[in-house]
TrEMBL record, chain A:
Protein name per the record: ABC transporter ATP-binding protein
A single cellular component GO annotation: ATP-binding cassette (ABC) transporter complex, substrate-binding subunit-containing
Source lineage: Bacteria, Bacillati, Bacillota, Clostridia, Lachnospirales
Protein's organism: Lientehia hominis
TM region positions: none
Domain of life from the UniProt record: Bacteria
Automatic annotation (TrEMBL), chain B:
CdaR GGDEF-like domain ranges (all copies): 126-242
Stated name of the protein: Helix-turn-helix domain-containing protein
Protein source organism: Lientehia hominis
Pfam family, one: HTH_30
SUPFAM superfamilies (UniProt xref): Homeodomain-like
Gene3D superfamilies registered for this protein in UniProt: PucR C-terminal helix-turn-helix domain
Family: Belongs to the CdaR family.
Matches recorded under PANTHER family: CARBOHYDRATE DIACID REGULATOR
All copies of domain PucR C-terminal helix-turn-helix, residue ranges: 294-349
Length: 324, 362
């Protein structure tokens, strides 16, 4: 599939709902990309457009340099595994992997070769004669991926795949996924609405909201220098709080005065705050609070004050864009 | 499946021609039809024969034969005599019974039964009788899914769905027409609508990823009796329709979750026309230009918030206000007022519905 390029792509459903708007994104050949954002932000629609299941309403979508026709459904050679995948319960792992090829009336010998090769790659040769009910969740996931790999897809599209695994299995699956990505060398797009999952993937990450890209960058960039309140909040949840503060310049230091706390602002932030005209004005302060101060059995409390090691951002009250 | 009377008639007719005594037992050794007395005495021999791997065997002066229905042992036939004649006649009788089984299958076939059940082609008494004969539980909770594929005659999609549910033979899958696959699913006692939503998601994800098919999935309400299955089917079909009109951004639609679309879908067309005439005075919202429609939709999306809407449309707040004023002049509805907004929203939905009905008529 090589590279995928979105230029001002829009997707509007017949009922008028705009799922994706002004979408610009370049995905390089063989890149590992994570697409994240809250549910309903349009991630899945983007995925479906790449897969050719959802026609593009406007703009340019190029795959491997070739323009995808607007309003047309085209099947593409992509391997997809979505969260609610299942294995055919009445078939062995081998038959599960061979099923689609059998439907296409591929010769038996060719099927056997493809299945065995792929099983080796995924290290599931020993499972080939097992039935799905005999497998663990993690093994099922490997089989599902192997089933998609049998066709040698040019790109892998994974949707919340690790979401239904236990916490401990998730880390294992994630590492295996990264290994496989290196071995396969194909483009891999992982979609999740869980920011922590996105962070753990450690790849280039795109944050979407209301059908648009809010910010794209490395995980560090998104965590350390978010472009607006939404990205800061989404990436740092749980444990991200906002509070209105007044920036006051004293004799020795600049302070952010909240209702329940005050905080010294680092001196190097002063120029930016001055430039934005924030001195003496109210701004929105966002800060992280580590969960160690939270009672173990409870959710994060509604209000918390910043801690000494909190990450702090200031946002414009109107636009919610980051100031510093 | 074949009544004992028919079996009796068959072997009596064949005995009349061949003069060989015959008897048919079930796999538990019970005599179903016989042309000679005291056939019960052979019960133990029949049971032993059922367990043995042989297809035919001579025991106590009788040729024993196994009668299979699609590889499943259905009956044991006894033909008196141990010579070649008894063997040949026995084989003929087995052949005859097997053909009868096929003929009866065709008539009482499960597939046909469910199709007729879905389409309301059965009398109430027939439903119970046939369900019993086909070993279909009557009082089990079921729900009907309708899966619509974009491409006609999508065998890959049908095969995928069949394979997904094949291990549970009590679920039933068929294609009623070229684009629709139907799944009648049996529910476990602890399963509810949440689980059905998961099933729908699973079907959607699997068809998307495995069959690369764009599909819409709809399902009806959970019914408690076999005779109500057709209702669940009709509901699923309606949900599919309503979903297409009002919720085209969704791939899964549940009948019990149709919202306001359900109400509008039930309205007679004449009433809709009157309503639209009253509100738009003979004009149609379709006459509104694209820009205005986008503005209105965005305004609704943002809960009638002027500043947020103008921000998202990249227009100045005053431009938006001007557009809303213009709309108010032409329709008399001020979208910033909740009452007017809701009237307009419903009117838009009614128009969508009317357009859909008109495309059906053409």
């Amino acid at each position: 599939m090589a590279d995928i390029s979105f230029r001002n792509v829009t997707k509007t459903f017949p009922n008028g709902k705009a799922a994706v708007k002004n979408f610009d994104l370049e995905i390089a050949d063989g890149e590992f990309l994570v697409l994240t954002g809250p549910s309903g932000s349009g991630k899945v629609t983007v995925l479906r457009m790449i897969a050719g299941m959802e026609p593009v309403s406007g703009g340019e979508l190029r795959i491997d340099g070739e323009l995808v026709e607007t309003g047309k459904i085209q099947k593409r050679n992509v391997g997809m595994i979505f969260q609610h995948f299942t294995l055919y319960p009445g078939m062995t792992v081998y038959d599960n992997m061979a099923f689609a090829m059998k439907l296409c009336q591929t010769p038996e010998e060719e099927i056997r070769r493809a299945v065995e090769e792929t099983a080796k790659l995924f290290r599931i040769e020993k499972l080939l004669s097992c039935y799905p009910r005999e497998l663990t969740e993690l093994q099922k996931q490997y089989v599902a991926m192997a089933r998609a790999q049998v066709h040698h897809p040019e790109a892998f599209l994974l949707l919340d795949l690790l979401g239904n695994l236990e916490f401990s299995a998730r880390a294992k699956a994630r590492n295996r996924l990264k290994e496989l990505y290196k071995e396969l060398g194909t483009t891999l797009i992982y979609v999740t609405d869980n920011a922590q999952e996105a962070v753990c993937m450690g790849a280039r990450t795109v944050v979407m909201h209301h059908g648009q890209i809010e910010q794209a960058g490395t995980v560090e960039e998104l965590l350390e220098s978010p472009c607006n309140l939404f990205v800061a909040q989404f990436m740092n949840e749980p444990g991200f709080y906002t509070s209105e503060v007044k920036i006051v310049k004293g004799h020795t230091a600049v302070e952010a005065l909240g209702d329940k706390f005050s905080l010294d602002v680092p001196a190097e932030w002063l120029p930016k705050l001055e430039r934005a005209g924030c001195i003496g004005r109210k701004v929105l302060m966002g800060y992280t609070v580590t969960s160690r101060n939270v009672p173990e059995d409870g959710d994060m409390p509604e209000e918390m004050i910043p801690e000494p090691d909190s990450k702090v951002f200031f946002f414009d009250k109107e636009t919610e864009k980051v100031i510093v | 499946m074949i009544s004992n009377q028919i079996l009796q008639n068959t072997i009596e007719g064949l005995k009349g021609i061949t003069r060989i005594e015959l008897c048919i037992c079930d796999t538990e050794g019970k005599v179903l039809a016989t042309t000679f007395p005291d056939a019960e005495e052979y019960e133990f021999s029949v049971l032993a024969f059922v367990e043995s791997p042989a297809d035919s065997q001579v025991i106590q002066g009788y040729q024993f034969f196994k009668v299979f229905d699609e590889h499943q042992l259905e009956y044991v036939l006894l033909a008196r005599g141990s010579g070649d004649d008894a063997y040949m006649v026995g084989k003929v009788v087995v052949f005859q019974i097997q053909n009868l089984l096929v003929a009866y299958k065709e008539r009482f076939d499960k597939d046909n039964f469910i199709k007729n059940l879905l389409l309301d082609n059965l009398l109430l008494v027939d439903i119970y009788n046939r369900a019993k004969k086909l070993h279909i539980d009557i009082n089990v909770r079921r729900v009907v899914f309708v899966i619509e594929t974009q491409t006609e005659n999508d065998t890959v999609a049908l095969e995928t769905v069949k394979s997904m549910f094949s291990a549970k033979s009590k679920d039933f899958i068929t294609a009623v027409d070229e684009k629709n696959i139907i799944l009648v699913k049996e529910l476990k006692s602890n399963e509810g609508y949440e689980d059905m939503d998961k099933v729908a998601k699973m079907i959607l994800d699997m068809l998307n990823t495995e069959a690369m098919a764009t599909v819409h999935v709809a399902y009806g309400t959970i019914v408690n009796e076999v005779k109500e299955v057709s209702r669940s089917y009709k509901e699923a079909k309606m949900a599919l329709d309503v979903g297409k009109i009002f919720y085209s951004d969704k791939n899964i639609v549940a009948y019990n979750n149709l919202g306001i679309g359900r109400l509008i879908y039930q309205l007679p067309l004449s009433l809709c026309r009157m309503f639209i005439k009253e509100i738009f005075d003979g004009k149609s919202p379709d006459d509104l230009d694209e820009e205005t429609l986008v503005t209105i939709n965005k305004f609704f999306e943002n809960n009638l918030n002027v500043s947020e809407t103008s921000r998202q449309l990249y227009i100045h707040r005053n431009t938006l206000v001007y557009r809303l004023d213009k709309l108010q002049k032409s329709t008399g509805l001020d979208l910033r007022v909740f009452e007017d907004a809701i009237t307009f929203k419903i009117a838009l939905m009614v128009v969508k519905y009317m357009n859909y009905i008109e495309t059906l008529d053409n």
